[in-house]
Each structure stands twice: as structure tokens, then as C-alpha cells.
DNA sequence: CAGTGATCATAT
DNA sequence: ATATGATCACTG
């Protein structure tokens, strides 16, 4: 799948996917559909990346570098409610003195997002899950402010050695949660007294209440 | 049963 | 180990 050259081309392709089931799309692209996602958690996301021509791989750059667009699938139930939080990026736990929100990875990644809702209740077989209507989002000033506030608070805690006091409930819209192979994984971090320690890697996630508001704005 | 913490596959 | 893609599953 060639990468789209313009935003219009990307959105056109995206609209063409709306209403298709994952089974139909997988068949078109020559993929087998897993029975469940327990061992293929990123399967749907990667299928949709391919269908839209996103640059493959796990490079630390937007899905569509030329367009500056980040693609996020958003699993929802039949009422349009998000089923899961949305992973944004890993959180830097060291070397973060005086980083500005505007320069942060979170801010960059969320500056332009193509949200692609996916009817994905667990009771629906994977192959029958239906692709929804994708929409482009840029945070408005209020959303930007909420994100920045949470980010600054979390980053200050991290920088001051408070990593182990942070739990998922901390932010209003943005949260910090484990992002690792398992609970034994370790990465460099800052201890209570400012000393180097090893800690569980974390990632930034958008809470479902936030992504639900984005859906409301887009569809009512 | 929502939300937090844990986990899975793959590429580099 | 760290980055990508996320969902699983236990707990209050």
C-alpha cells in the first residue's frame, strides 16, 4: 500500500474502509484473522495501518510522516463508548529537566490524530468487528490545556523522584501506566533522593472519558 | 463493571 | 532494552 501523498487522499481511503468488517479487510489484504487478540493485541491496528498506507515498523515517528498524522484505532462498544484507554507514547523517566510541553513527545504525537473507531466488543468475533468512520482531530485550546496540565504535573513528579507514587488515577485526561513486557521489566529512573534507580517502564495513555468527548464532538 | 496494573507480539 | 501496535484481567 503506497503511502497517501495528501490529507485528502488519506481521508478518502479512510472513508472507503468505513463499514467493512475486519474479516473483509483481512481477506482483501491476504491476512488470517486471529480467533482472539490475546496474543495479537496490535493486530487490528496494524491491519488498518497497512490498509491506509502508514509507514510500517516501530519507528519513533508519526504513522504518516509527510502529513504529520498519527493514526489511532479506537475500540468502542455499540453505544460509541471507548472500551480501552489510548496509548500515546512511552514516558521518559530520566534526563527530562526543563522540557517544555510544546516540545514533548505527547504534544507532538497528539497534534494531529486520525481516529478510527472500531466496534470491538469482546462478544463480537474478531472477524465481524466493524470499522467505523475515521475523523481527524487537533486538540482545541481547552483540550490542549488539560493535556498540558496533566503532562506537566506527571513530569514534575517523575523528575522529582515521585515515580512510584504515580498511579493511573493521577491525571484528569492523561494518565501514566505501566508499559512493559511484564511487571519485572526495568528501566532507568530517578529515586526519591534524586539518585538513579531502576523502575518499571511507563507510558502515557488517554483516559476513555477524554476520547469519548472527542467522539461526541465528532459525531454528537 | 470501571479503572488500574499487567501483559503479548514484533522490529530495531 | 525501547519503540511500535494495543488488549487482557484482576481488584475494589
From TrEMBL:
InterPro entries linked to this entry: DNA_mismatch_repair_MutH, DNA_rep_MutH/RE_typeII_Sau3AI, DNA_rep_MutH/T2_RE_sf, Restrct_endonuc-II-like
Source organism's superkingdom?
A: Bacteria
Which UniProt key words apply to this protein? Cytoplasm, DNA damage, DNA repair, Endonuclease, Hydrolase, Nuclease
Which GO MF terms are attached to this record?
endonuclease activity
Its annotated compartments are: Cytoplasm
A Pfam entry, by short name: MutH
Major site of localization recorded for this protein: cytoplasm
Which ranges carry the DNA mismatch repair MutH/Type II restriction enzyme Sau3AI domain? 52-150
What the protein does comes down to:
Sequence-specific endonuclease that cleaves unmethylated GATC sequences. It is involved in DNA mismatch repair.
Which NCBIfam families does the UniProt record give? mutH_TIGR, PRK05070.1
Family note: Belongs to the MutH family.
| Protein known as | DNA mismatch repair protein MutH
The uppermost taxa in this organism's lineage are: Bacteria, Pseudomonadati, Pseudomonadota, Gammaproteobacteria, Alkalimonas
Amino acid at each position: 500500500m503506497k503511502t497517501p501523498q495528501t490529507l485528502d487522499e488519506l481521508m478518502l481511503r479512510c472513508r472507503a474502509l468505513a463499514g467493512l468488517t475486519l474479516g473483509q479487510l483481512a481477506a482483501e489484504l491476504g491476512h488470517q484473522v486471529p480467533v482472539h487478540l490475546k496474543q495479537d493485541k496490535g493486530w487490528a491496528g496494524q491491519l488498518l495501518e497497512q490498509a491506509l498506507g502508514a509507514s510500517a515498523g516501530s519507528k519513533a515517528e508519526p504513522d504518516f510522516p509527510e502529513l504529520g498524522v498519527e493514526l489511532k484505532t479506537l475500540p468502542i462498544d455499540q453505544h460509541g463508548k471507548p472500551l480501552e484507554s489510548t496509548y500515546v507514547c512511552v514516558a521518559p523517566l530520566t534526563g527530562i529537566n526543563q522540557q517544555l510541553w510544546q516540545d514533548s513527545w505527547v504534544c507532538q504525537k497528539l497534534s494531529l490524530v486520525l481516529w478510527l473507531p472500531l466496534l470491538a466488543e469482546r462478544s463480537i468475533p474478531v472477524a465481524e468487528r466493524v470499522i467505523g468512520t475515521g475523523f481527524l482531530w487537533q486538540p482545541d485550546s481547552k483540550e490542549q490545556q488539560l493535556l498540558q496540565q496533566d503532562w506537566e504535573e506527571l513530569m514534575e513528579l517523575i523528575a522529582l523522584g515521585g515515580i512510584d507514587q504515580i498511579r493511573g488515577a493521577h491525571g484528569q485526561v492523561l494518565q501514566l501506566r505501566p508499559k512493559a513486557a511484564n511487571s519485572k521489566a526495568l528501566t532507568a529512573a530517578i529515586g526519591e533522593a534524586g539518585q538513579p534507580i531502576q523502575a518499571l517502564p511507563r507510558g502515557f495513555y488517554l483516559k476513555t472519558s477524554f476520547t469519548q468527548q472527542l467522539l461526541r464532538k465528532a459525531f454528537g
